[in-house]
Give the backbone structure.
Amino acid sequence: MLEERLAKYINNEKGGLFLNYDPTTIARILRAAGNPHKSFPCVHIAGTNGKGTTSWLIAGMLEEAGYKTGLYTSPHLVNINERIRINRTPADDAALIAILDTIESTLHEEGEPFPTYFDILTAVAFIYFREQGIDAAVIETGLGGRLDSTNVIDSVISIITDISYDHTAILGSTIEQIALEKAGIIKYGQTVITSNSTGIGLDVIKNASSQKGSTLLASGEDFIVTVLESGRDGFYFSYSSGDKSPATLYTPLLPVHQAGNCGLAITAALVLAKSHFPLITDDIIKSTLSKTAVPGRFERLCSNPEIIFDPAHNVAALTGLVSHLEKHHSPEKTVMIISLMKDKATPELISLLKSLKFPIIYLVLDDPRAFVPAEGLFHTITSNPDVIIKRISSDNMENTYIFTGTFRNYLCAVRIALAAGRSMQDSL
């Protein structure tokens, strides 16, 4: 219902022309609603990879400490309500629609400019959080940072996860340009935390923090995360900072590059504990890390056969995913099922895929943004999920199948996993 109501708005997530990408319109909507985003402290998260996982971890630590916590992320996997959560429970559809009704009545009164899908959804989230009386919110940017709809908040912490090439048509063709857009979320006199530890991306973040009089905590300099031992189901790592002795921690989050996101979340939690949220303790941080599972991130959809979904969609993320698969899964027993959007199918990413030791099935999605590869580029190219179900059902039950490349193939992966799992059971 909510998704249908939002269909009339400009949806830049569907690609094509990128229109009204500016926080001016949402600021007008929020002013009319009494600036709900100013009624609770926020942690704001930008970056190329790892925003969602970092957001979930911080929200989990706040929640486990007893704080009523709002979580705003994107995109959604199944239902749009997943993007707006309190204590990680999706918002009620009726409550969101009632807020949308109020917003739209204001729009009709005030006229243009016309807001985007993401403007409206973000405004709905902020009003919902105020109505529910949350103690804190963790807010993930939709795209970039400087011009993102979420960049109206006055956050207490800004976090910038790993920066790599993504959305170059909008954010710029160089790491420096992309980093400048991400660093646009940095506010005056706050704490900034980043997992970027070298290169021009870190330089940009340092300069932006300095210009805003903000304190920067950078991985490798101000806190150190080291992977100690990894396996198929999780990994151990150590964390230390200036005033924190090394501690050994465990998380089921995979692949191991998630250690960087864990480091960001721990550092943010320690900063929050010293200021606004003293109920966050070391034990809560450790407990949250040990049991957090983020929907759609290296998510095991089926155990027999093993079918996993991970949304890696650029060279950096896929490199981490492939490294894990090569270390913990036999190449002869691993099959990658990938779908890509046109803007993600860069020569560098295609070259990486072609170098892999295990077979690739390319699933062509029914989506105007979908990349359609040339014949022969991959082991198998199909738009028919039944082809994949038949392949899985006829294969060795010890095989691992990894769906990846985009969040947009998640539902298809779930349906294939259910069908393949039933087929395997029927054959026993």
The first strand starts at residue 42 and ends at 46. The CA atoms of residues 222 and 404 lie 33 Å apart. The chain has a mean pLDDT of 91. The chain has two domains: 2-291, 299-427.
